[in-house]
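Encode chain A's predicted structure.
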Amino acid sequence: MAGTEKTGFFAKLKDGLKKTRDNLYVAFSGATIIDEDFYDDLEEVMIMSDMGVELSESVIDQLREVSETKHISYPTVLRRELVRIFKEEMDVTEADYEFERRKSVVLVTGVNGVGKTTSIGKLASHYKAEGKRVLLAAADTFRAAAIEQLTEWSNRAGVPIIAQKEGSDPSAVIFDAVTAAKSRNVDILLCDTAGRLHNKKNLMEELRKMNRIIDQVYPEAFRENLLVLDAATGQNAISQAKEFMDVTNITGIILTKMDGTAKGGIAIAIQKELGIPVKYIGVGEGIDDLMRFNSEDFVDALLADD
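Encoded structure for chain A:
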C-alpha cells in the first residue's frame, strides 16, 4: 500500500494507543531502579491495558529473567527488552497472508456490531486496488440490512456481489458465489457469514454446510476463516474468539476499532492466548483505515517516546 497511506494509518494507530502508551511511559520513566514496586506498577499497567493477567505475569517473568541474565539495572534499558518481547509475541509472517496470493475462499465471521461487513468491504476495496478479481457473497442473510450494507460496499469498491433476499438460505448464497467465483476465475471470494453465538448449534451446522458446499464445488480453492473482533471490548474479545473457535477453525483475526476507545493490549493477548495471528487492524471508519497487522509498527506505536 502507498507510503503516505501507511504513514497516515500509523499516525491514527499511534493516536489510538495514546492512553496505554502514556501509562507505559510513566511506569518506566517514573522509576529510577528496577525493584518490586517497579514490576508491580508495570504489571498493573499491562493488565489495565487489556493484556490480561496471564500474559502480564508471563511478560514480567521474562523481564525479571532478562534483567538478571543481562545485569540490567535501569528501567529505561529494560524498556527495550519489553519492545523485543512484544514484537516476538506478535510475529506475523508473509506466510500468514498466503490466501492473498492464491485463488481463495474467505469466510468472515463475527457478532453484530464488531464491524464485520464494513471490514469485508474495506478488504474488497484494497484487493481491487491491487488488481485482484474480487467477489462478495452476502451470506449473512438473517441480520437486518446486512445484505444492503454489503451491497453498498460492493458499489463503493467496484466489485460484484452475489446476494439473495433477506432470510434466504445462506448456503444457497455460498453455492451461487463459489460457482461464480470458479467460473469467473475470481482471485478472492469474500463471504459475509452470520455470527449468531446465542445459538451456536445452528451456527455450527450452517458453517459446516457452507464448508461442505465449498469442498464439493471448489475443492482446489485456498481456504481462510477470518474472525472480526472489536478491540474496545477488551478481554471479552478473547472470550468471544474462544466461542467461535468451538464452532469453526479460525485462521486469522481482524481487530477493529483501535481508535482510542481500545487500550491496545488485547492485540498482544489474542495472539499469546489463542495462538491465532491478528492479520488486519482497523483504526477508524474510512476505507483506508484497515491494514495488514504489522508487529513492528504496532509496538512502536505502543511504546513510542512521544
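The beta strands are 104-109, 134-139, 161-162, 188-193, 222-230, 252-256, 278-282, 290-292.
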